[in-house]
Amino acid sequence: MKNANKYTRQYFLPDEPCFDWTRRDRLDHPPIWCSVDLRDGNQALIVPMNLEEKLAYFQLLVEIGFKEIEVGFPAASDTEFEFVRTLIERNLVPDDVTIQVLTQSRDHIIERTFEAIRGAKRAIVHLYNSTSVAQREQVFRADKDEIVRIAVTGAEQIRDLARQTPGNFFFQYSPESFTGTELDFALEICNAVLDVWQPTPERKVIINLPATVELSMPHVYASQIEYMGKHLAWRDAIVLSVHPHNDRGTGVAAAELAMLAGAERLEGTLFGNGERTGNVDIVTLALNLYSHGVDPGLDFSNLPAIQARVEALTKMQVSKRHPYAGELVFTAFSGSHQDAIAKGMKWREEKSPEHWTVPYLPIDPKDIGREYEGDIIRINSQSGKGGIGYVLEQSHGFDLPPKMREQLGYAVKRVSDREQKELSADEIAEIFMREFVNLAEPLDLVELTGTDAKGMHRVRATVVWQGQQVEIEGAGNGRLDALCHALEEGLGIRVANLTYKEHALEVGSGSRAVAYISVDDEKGNTHYGCGVDTDIMEASAKALVSAVNRMLVHSGEVPLAVGK
Ligand SMILES: CC(=O)SCCNC(=O)CCNC(=O)[C@H](O)C(C)(C)COP(=O)(O)OP(=O)(O)OC[C@H]1O[C@@H](n2cnc3c(N)ncnc32)[C@H](O)[C@@H]1OP(=O)(O)O
Ligand SMILES: CC(C)C(=O)C(=O)O
Ligand SMILES: [Mg+2]
């Protein structure tokens, strides 16, 4: 990158330090949210929304709970104009919602804007003109006084038209490209507009300070906002608003720091659609607040449905990694994350169901309409026993002993790695059934009968072993013990250190029992098997035979028929 010296700093810091905001570590209430989806978001689309689409989007914003909505740039096109007229004439704006329209500071554009909002119950007229050094020099080729003149002339025309036009109108001014503007000049031009509009605490004016292009690190923006908040005239009659964009990828950070620095209102869009890299994403900001225990006042409890509607209307896609909304943002593929999540979920269930501190998951996915199943833990070759066991338990009800999870884990990972693909819960269950459950090779238990006498158990079993049907018998202090003796005495198969676990299998149809058994081979290696049957005794015998079969196969004593 040899051309770095082509670029120089284009932003301005206050002369005096403005870092009071660094002493605050959290936001304890939401800002006044203003959606600019229908204007800034819309103007950045390949094909801007048509009338019907804008109406549907407006309805969505109302349902989410926005009370201020910039509905368009009425002078831009017939569609924009018609949309605003439709909202007003069809009385589609709820009483507690204020629409906002944007206008340049040009005669005919302001006039057309007022034609559009005639009769509105409440509308904010948003005037902007660009104030940065680059825009003054290159676009407007005007000095500071001339730029102030543009703003003041527009403000006067708006003041006058608001008096003459039926409706209830409020005012907003944005020094566009604020972040590239010397702060004293930004103050001067905002104050000049305020002098025209003469706001009062009862009828405030919105001063909106946009990072039209994000030029600096976010702490610089925060300092600029703090400086403006401290020095603007008419302070008690102003709502201090911010409008971050995301050119450096720090729009959310800039917005949060700006709010720490005193911004009371925030303009942004759903999922950050907007010019270039987008406006700041209100979904992320709202859910960041939520994750700190603050109700954002916007309803994202069914975020997938909102996302689907936004995608359909804008024809834009939300990235799979988008904060909170992306398809994969609650998903762990990697073993250690899965293990921690599975343990965290269990811990929460048992110890603290009313709080959410599950590792790796900043919020409870259910709060925004996401599911645990298939969403949180997904399995591939990076996964581990914790996650694989969790998926099997959640989906098919098998609660494996910890060491058996490890053996299943390796079996599942091998398949995923070899086939280079993610495995579904059903595929994991299939591997489990194939590798561990009711195994009948090389040893097949055909029939088992038993009797009890004076605390001694006797069994008689018909098995198929090395191609032949054989009758074996044994005695012990329980049925499994007796079967172990029968295997040893009849076939010479010796097992040691048997462990046992059983539970009812609640997932799926019919009531079945499941048993897990481990046995050690002569070298001390442990082998697990599982048995499933409607009868628990049958299930445990099948588990023992399965464990023995895995032992025989994996200790290399018989040809590999299972457990490949
Ligand atoms: C940062 C932002 O997002 S700002 C909002 C931007 N959004 C849009 O532009 C979308 C809607 N815009 C439009 O439909 C059109 O641009 C219109 C209807 C507003 C104006 O159309 P036109 O007059 O045909 O063209 P255009 O936008 O190129 O006009 C540029 C002229 O306006 C001037 N101008 C631009 N912004 C402003 C402003 N805020 N106030 C006063 N004059 C302005 C330019 O200096 C230029 O002047 P010149 O004619 O002396 O060279
Ligand atoms: C019109 C203004 C507020 C704007 O969109 C911007 O500066 O980004
Ligand atoms: Mg913008």
Automatic annotation (TrEMBL):
Biological process, per Gene Ontology: L-leucine biosynthetic process
Subunit structure and binding partners: Homodimer.
GO cellular component assignments: cytoplasm
E.C. number: 2.3.3.13
Record organism: Alicyclobacillus vulcanalis
Position of the signal peptide: none
Family classification: Belongs to the alpha-IPM synthase/homocitrate synthase family. LeuA type 2 subfamily.
PANTHER family recorded: 2-ISOPROPYLMALATE SYNTHASE, PTHR46911
Annotated InterPro entries: 2-isopropylmalate_synth_dimer (IPR013709), AIPM/Hcit_synth_CS (IPR002034), Aldolase_TIM (IPR013785), IPM_Synthase (IPR005668), LeuA-like_post-cat (IPR054692), LeuA_allosteric_dom_sf (IPR036230), LeuA_N_DRE-TIM (IPR039371), PYR_CT (IPR000891)
PROSITE patterns according to UniProt: AIPM_HOMOCIT_SYNTH_1, AIPM_HOMOCIT_SYNTH_2, PYR_CT
Protein name: 2-isopropylmalate synthase
Regulatory domain: annotated segments: 439-564
UniProt keyword Amino-acid biosynthesis present: yes
Gene3D superfamilies with a match to the protein in the record: 3.30.160.270, Aldolase class I (3.20.20.70)
Binding site for Mg(2+): D40, H243, H245, N279
